[in-house]
TrEMBL record:
Lineage: Bacteria, Pseudomonadati, Pseudomonadota, Gammaproteobacteria, Oceanospirillales
Organism: Endozoicomonas euniceicola
Origin superkingdom: Bacteria
Leader sequence segment: 1-25
Keyword Signal among UniProt keywords: yes
Name of this protein: Porin
Keywords annotated in UniProt: Signal
Amino acid sequence: MNKFRMTALAAAVVPAILMSHSVSANEADQPDPADLTRPKTFVWAQAGYSKDKIKGEKSYDTGVGKITGGLSGNFTEKAQYMGLLEQGFDRKGAANTRGRLFTTFDTGNSVMSRVGLSVDYIRHAKTKDTTAAVGVIGKFDANEWLAFYPNLAAVEAKVGATKEKSKGYQFNLFTSVYLNDKGMYSMIMPQYTDLKDVTVKKLEVSLGAPLTADAKTWWDVKVGYTKNEGKKRLATFESDGAELLFGVSHYF
């Protein structure tokens, strides 16, 4: 059951990418740290702490860390792409390896200004469990300081010794808030995942700002809470967990 939980938790589709600094939220030609539909080439290192509790068992602490790299480019002036590779770590070494590819498009619409498509694949180093997802995301601008990014994805997890399939969907509602005109932002990220054997409810809140005068290096901090509830063959399974991550990213 723990193996299933680890894979289900990883089934996020659209990456919460920290972009490099923009002097103003209105400067469309500048990268935007809170815009999930505007990719930029970057490297990003995170480290922190997590605590998990499985019902009927003792809680346990796990050291967490991630190294992520992303390479972006343009198909046209209105269409961009990004490929990403992420390696996670726990106290025993390598954990999840994740590959992602997505594209974004300007719509020319004032209500939904951008849309994106993504493919996401995750493989756990020890259990060999995998998760694959295909999703869509849109950008809705409330005003120059607030934007919403609804995201819907189809998810398939293969877990356990027999790699039994568990299919379902995931919904995210990313909310980006610009806190000042120097690039500081906050993101609120509720998530709901419904697979055949488990449901996952998750909430993350992050804060980020530039570290250097040229605004190419950023700091970020993220706190998150996750609750997992089993269904059908995992009806007795229940767990929750919390994490705190600190990160530094550099953009090119």
